[in-house]
Design brief:
- The protein is α/β, with parallel strands linked by helices.
- The chain folds into two domains: 126 residues, Methylene-tetrahydromethanopterin dehydrogenase, N-terminal domain (Rossmann fold, 3-Layer(aba) Sandwich), CATH 3.40.50.10280; 149 residues, Rossmann fold (3-Layer(aba) Sandwich), CATH 3.40.50.
- Helix content is 38%, strand content 19%.
- The strands form two sheets. A seven-stranded mixed β-sheet has the order 7-6-5-8-9-11-10, sandwiched between helices.
- α6 links the parallel β6 and β7.
């Protein structure tokens, strides 16, 4: 029986990245649907849960994606609301690669040093990856601040993650290089999760900072988010600090994404969100 993955995307066009990884993860066919909301998925979900016998339902699964994390979370919950005993399929949430990218990044940092009790800063942390990385760091025992150009935006991100994960985060505004350098002055861990091609720190802003121990940059497009870090860096030591580039931990991200897809087809009751994706990332790291 064919393994069918239905790609439920909140954007108009389903992500080609997610489609490719789904095939690499073991799906036989990937069927993409774009522009989905909690209000228009009933028939689609019913089509996945009513068409195969109980022992065969493991061969159907749903992947929720799109660029909007909040919209993805709402769609993810709406999908599950249509399930009932004996009629459900496995489902995974990874809007904008947020869960798998953040999990891979934090797992690699955890493999390189101690996170518990450390002060961590997530620069430009209001996007999907930044928010999830901040939450995962906090779950590992770090004291985490989300930094954004606008304080209200950082506060909004903190509020969303506090509500979702029952954690406590701090918000801080830093609009330029000097303010971001000040924001990380006493930090032990820094993750940069800014927009593609936007430099957030120059080398002189972090290389001589004696409090810093671990750094990671999620941007793979020049100029990188943290100047002086290489996109291919894999736990390399610079100036007494361990650093990870986007492709350096990206190999784990891709392996993790594929592994999650494969697990969706083990039975029909898998539910993959941040917590168990992060747990798997730590095992794989």
């Amino acid at each position: 029986m064919k393994k069918l993955l239905f790609q439920f995307d909140t954007d108009l066009h389903p992500s080609t990245f997610d489609t490719v990884v789904a095939y690499d993860g073991g799906a036989d066919h990937v069927i993409g649907h774009g522009g989905l909301t909690p209000e228009n998925i009933s028939a689609l979900v019913e089509g996945t849960i009513f068409t195969r016998a109980p022992k065969e339902k493991k061969n159907t699964a749903i992947f929720v994606g799109g660029s909007d994390m909040q919209a993805g979370q709402e769609l993810f919950q709406a999908v599950q609301s249509h399930f009932f005993p004996g009629f459900q399929v496995s489902v995974m949430l990874d809007s904008n690669g947020s869960n798998t990218t953040a999990a891979a990044c934090v797992a690699k940092l955890a493999s390189s040093g101690v996170l518990k009790g450390k002060k961590a800063v997530v620069l430009a942390g209001t996007g999907p990856v930044g928010q999830r990385a901040a939450a995962m760091l906090t779950l590992e025992g770090a004291d985490v601040t989300i930094v954004s150009r606008q304080l209200w935006n950082a506060e909004k991100a903190c509020e969303a993650m506090e509500k979702r994960f029952n954690v406590k985060l701090h918000a801080q505004a830093a609009a330029d290089f000097d303010e971001r350098a000040e924001a990380i002055k006493d930090a032990n861990i820094v993750i940069a999760t800014g927009a593609t091609g936007v430099e957030l720190l120059k080398p002189e802003h972090w290389q001589n900072n004696t409090s810093l121990e671990l750094l990671a940059d999620a941007n793979a497009t020049p100029p990188l988010g943290i100047g002086g870090i290489g996109v291919m860096d894999k736990g390399v030591e610079y100036n007494g600090k361990i650093v990870w580039g986007a492709i350096g931990f990206g190999s784990l991200k891709l392996a993790l994404h594929r592994a999650c897809i494969a697990k969706l087809f083990e039975d029909n009751k898998q539910v993959f969100d941040a917590e168990n994706i992060f747990a798997l990332a730590k095992e794989m790291a």
